[in-house]
Amino acid sequence: MKMEPKNQYTQKILAPVRRVSTGDYLLWGVLLALLLAGLGAWTWQFIEGLGITGMNRPVYWGVYITNFVFFIGLAHSGTFISAILRIAGQSWRAPLTRAAEAITLFSLPFGAGSIIIDMGHPERILNLLFYGRYQSPIMWDVTAVSLYMLSSIVFFYFSLIPDIAMCRDRLTNVPRWQHRMYEILALGWNHSPEQYHRLEKVLDGMAVFMTMLVVTVHTVVSWLFGMTVQPGWHTALIGPFFLLGAILSGTAAVVIVLAVLRKVYKLEKVLHIGLFNSLRKLLITFVLGWFYMMIAEHLTIGYSSMTEELIVLTDKFSGTYALIFWGMATFVFGIPLLVFIFKGKNHIGWMVFASVLINIGMWMERYIVIIPTEVSPRMLPVMGQGSYLPALPEILITIACFAGLILLYAVFTRFFPIVPIWETAQELPGQVHIPETSPATSPAASD
Amino acid sequence: MDIGALVHTFFDNAGPGGVVVLLVIGGACTTYYFLTRWIVSVGKKNEPTTPEEQPVSTNA
Predict the structure, then answer these.
(1) Do residues A155 and B39 touch, judged by C-beta distance below 8 A?
(2) pLDDT of A231-256, one tens digit each?
(3) For residue A140, is it within any domain?
(4) For B20, which of A134, A171, A198 is closest by C-beta distance?
(5) Helix A10-18 with A392-415: angle, nearest 10 deg
């Protein structure tokens, strides 16, 4: 008898992989057009130089760096759901691990890519390899982000192998090239109990490593700012503040993605309401944690009453950037907290609404951390007061980054199962494995 | 041997930074390659060798 994980939802999970619809091609076409528009803008910037962007002296960092921090933060969703909750033994997370990890996988290239776009000429990245000094936080970033990207790909791929093997064995009506792709990527997986045993062992070990990486990466990203002696940035709190914000936006992104997948691919039974209720509790905790960090950060800076710090702080609280600052606070904290507490339970629509607000707010937060300091830097009389508004190429490239992320995600879900079949299986070859994934058994459902 | 001078040289000179990046990424690639081999290798030993032992395709 053929050995395979026994999962009552296998057919349902594999259904989206069986065929690509006209609607898919239409969506991919639109997203590809946006991506190409961004590529065009990048070419324009490559030819004309960074002078065509809104960046100027002393505003050397604009929306590209905002995007960098935002996308790297978004990428923390997968590691948080898969690695940290794995270590914590939270078995309810099983159905949503791949959906979360895919966000990590597809947002990281746009995060890392934003740095290269910001350099103006991409070949300048080679200067880091040939002439890099390890005293520079940029080198720490290159090391951490590259390792995180590589490890995320491997972590994602490892947990995908058994399901690719199932695609190879079950999907024989797909185009020949697609079947060949499954054959190659499955690496000869034959669902033997020992293979599953080793896979679980490696994934457990990697989960610990990935947890360390996730903390390192966003801390190092924050040190790009923290290590410069600039108002608003030079604080030890910036590392944990960035990290918490990243996990908050990543978890909110998982809610959005799960809701879309559930609706579009009719996965209501697999991605049940209990998962959203569990994520709701996590999000309430993260929103409150983020608010605590927000107060700690601004109170520490403001209480010192140092002239340079106060200029930036006043700009945020009641000056040029007040609208963005208070808008951000409302989007990330005010509205979502009320929604999660009073409306979110058992209501996916409200959860998605709050999660979208959180992500818009977190992008604004990244912007508000970077721009006011750049506009009013240290030694203001020498550097001069700056001003910044994103120019057309920056806007087009930003839209292209989001379109690219959605495009990669949408294409992936049509070729690979987005819910892990083996991890949600009732029984694995050679062992009985009963994950708490159904509403009846999940503690999440009893929320 | 002046360890302090060595550390200072490492941090303050152009070049070693790139080597560290390459070493870290190269080391990770090698580790992941062998991990992948280790996971899948056990299955290959148990693979059926005769046509009679081949699993039946369940074309869904």
Answers:
(1) no
(2) 999 989 999 999 999 999 999 999 99
(3) yes
(4) A134
(5) 120
pLDDT band at A331 (very low <50, low <70, confident <90, very high): very high
Task: Write the ipTM.
Answer: 0.85
Residues 6+ apart with CB under 8 A from A347: none
CA atoms of A105 and A408, how far apart (whole Å): 9
Residue from the list A136, A151, A188 with its beta carbon closest to the beta carbon of B43 = A188
**In chain B, which residue's Cα lies nearest the Cα of A158?**
B36
More confident position, A35 or B20: A35
Q: Do A2 and B25 touch (CB under 8 A)?
A: no
User: And the tokens for A411?
Assistant: 């294409």
Judged by CB atoms closer than 8 Å, whether chains meet at B25 and A14 is answered as no
Residue A382 lies in a domain: yes
CA separation for the pair B50, B32 (Å, rounded): 32
Mutate to test the interface with A, among B19, B33, B40 (most CBs of A within 10 A): B40
Which chain A residue has the Cα nearest residue B48? A190
> How many structural domains comprise chain A?
1
Quick one: average pLDDT of A393-410? 97
pTM of the prediction? 0.89
Task: Give the Cα separation of A84 and A398 in Å (integer).
Answer: 30
Write the secondary structure of chain B as one string of H (helix), E (strand) and C (coil): CCHHHHHHHHHHCCCHHHHHHHHHHHHHHHHHHHHHHHHHHHHHHCCCCCHHHCCCCCCC
What CATH number did the domain enclosing A233 receive?
Answer: 1.20.1630.10
Residue A2 lies in a domain: no
Cβ(A394)–Cβ(A62) below 8 Å: yes
The token duo for A225 is 């700012």
**Chain B residues touching chain A at CB-CB below 8 Å:** 10-18, 20-22, 24-25, 28-29, 32, 35-36, 38-40, 42-44, 46-47, 55-60
Distances (CA, A) of A320 to A306, A372, A375, A385, B2: 20, 9, 11, 13, 52
**Alpha-carbon distance A366 to A220, whole Å?**
15
Rounded CA-CA distance A141/A239 in Å is 13
Residues of A in contact with B17 (CB under 8 A): 128, 131-134, 136, 139
* Beta carbons of B46 and A202 less than 8 Å apart: no
Residue A368 belongs to a domain: yes
> Residue A147 belongs to what domain range?
10-446
